[in-house]
């Protein structure tokens, strides 16, 4: 026990430091704050924010994407990759374990809405929190209030309403929390653990996380800082709309989608978002970050890896789609959600040694469920939109 505590103190301490300093000991610039004003200084730093693309840059990128999409993967093989999607991600996590993605330490800076409003100021200063001391979490009775047992309310009907569950007195994981967060496609927990770290001193907030790769969920659950009293991790395929969630509809405050929707077939995306929107409480939010059109990783694909327009297969069998801002807007608006933020973020990464410049593009968005959007109204809106 003492060993775990020491390990824990060390983890928080290291994490704190990794956010404040680079390996060369220089302090890091906060995300989004480094502007390239003088092009001659491009090799002075390894990263520049808010890069503007010229029309020429845009056209050159479009040409590359057209060129690498000329040869498409055969339809039979495409079906096979769709059927075996979870198998490939499972292999991915067996190979890389939790060593591939970095902890998403930018989460609270970019998405303060992850936590209840009254806690947001603390999160912005997350690296100065006193969380090095795990006694703080262990001894705080408030953080142990959530129950993770006796779940049975949603197993036969994923569409049950929170009110009816409450009235029936049935419990589900996190049923006594007042604020609930779900991360879809959580992978090995690179967002889960920064969130759990932030929750350590905040009572009645509960985190759910799911992934269709069982190996990923296993990695999350076996992590020394996984806390089943604050978090419920489960295997779930978001493309399977018959598969129930372990909580009722309209029970979530926040849904996090971090680099996950790009992994699913673009024909499935709208259905996924419609269903996720139903899980949100009125006023709840979806926080989204994913691959943007003409990111360097799209332009680097060789011919023969394209599945359909802007959708590719990687060598390991996992797939990736590259979104535009308008597509993202349409997807979430069609599900009845209101745009709060929707930005195409362009960043320039620089390899100073090799004198190479790399353009990164992603989309960052926030969409909110209107307070008046109840389930029946959402169904009405969806029906009218599709007809
Ligand atoms: C690029 S990784 C991102 C992981 C994590 N969100 C992060 O930011 O580190 C994409 C994740 O989505 C998961 N995923 C892909 N398709 C999914 C689906 N249909 N249902 C659930 N998870 C899925 C993969 O297994 C993988 O863990």
Automatic annotation (TrEMBL):
First-tier enzyme category under EC: transferase
EC nos: 2.1.1.-
Domain Methyltransferase type: start-end pairs: 182-286
Gene3D superfamilies xref list: Vaccinia Virus protein VP39 (3.40.50.150)
InterPro entries in the cross-refs: Methyltransf_12 (IPR013217), METTL2/6/8-like (IPR026113), SAM-dependent_MTases_sf (IPR029063)
GO BP of this protein: methylation
Entry keyword set: Methyltransferase, S-adenosyl-L-methionine, Transferase, tRNA processing
Molecular function GO terms recorded: methyltransferase activity
Function: S-adenosyl-L-methionine-dependent methyltransferase.
Similarity comment: Belongs to the methyltransferase superfamily. METL family.
PANTHER family according to UniProt: METHYLTRANSFERASE-RELATED, TRNA N(3)-METHYLCYTIDINE METHYLTRANSFERASE
Protein name: tRNA N(3)-cytidine methyltransferase
Species: Pogona vitticeps (central bearded dragon)
Protein encoded by which gene: METTL8
